[in-house]
Amino acid sequence: MTGDWLRETLHPDIAQTFRMQTVLYRDQTGLQDLIIFDNPVMGRMLVLDGVIQTAERDEFMYHEMLVHVPVLAHGAARRLLVIGGGDGGSLREALKHRTIEEAVLVEIDPSVIELSRKWLPSISAGAFDDPRARVVIADGAHYVKETDDRFDVIVIDSTDPHGPGAVLFSAEFYGDCKRCLAPGGVMATQSGVPFLQPKELTDSVTRLSRFFRDAGCFVTSVPTYYGGVMALGWATDDVSLRRLPVETLTERYRAAGIETRYYNPEVHRAAFALPNFVRELLD
User: Fold this and answer.
1) Which one of 28, 115, 119, 139 is most buried, counting C-beta atoms within 10 A?
2) Catalytic site residue from 87, 157, 160, 176
3) 157 catalytic, yes or no?
4) What domains are there in the chain, each with its CATH number?
């Protein structure tokens, strides 16, 4: 941090900066350094260990795609698991679906939930108070290894692969997630910006391929996560789900009755059309 600017150095040779108009909170949570501040363009922002996690202005571009693509591809999801996601954005999007009977959120750092609810309430939008939501404070890797629960959709809303989030990119973790998926289940993961983080995507998809018949990614665009399109990992044993026609997705979207600002059935289908440089990373 320099003066009233946050300098994010997630990548070794390139950085981005945000003006911290008002710093609302800064402290060590016991697991990581956490900052919440207001920016005139991006709104309120959450930072963990110097890396931007979410911003009010564009978080919907990430959370909507991370959740609605697997849920609507599945078509009959009743139980959903979010690993990470303490800001509540993924939980909010999951609970828009009336068919979801239970959404379990497993977060290792309770301070992220507590402070997000206090300072970033628009992101969870009451999701933590929904009776279908169940919050578990635990290491997500330990949870999927030990739980007897089974889920139709698993969403890995993690930090990048460093600090507490590093284990959520391991082959062992992906294998444990596969064990927790019900037959026909779908998994989606945060997989970085491939232009600047190619290894994050290739390592993730290579490891997912050990456990799933269909492993790859789809893309979205989130201005805060700079460097071009962002990859969201995709894994399932049902190879037909990534190729659902727009007509089927449109029927499911209309039946769900949800409101979205980024996601729509056409964007869903097109998100699996990858730029050549991303295809090369997967090949």
Assistant:
1) 115
2) 157
3) yes
4) 5-55 (2.30.140.10), 59-282 (3.40.50.150)
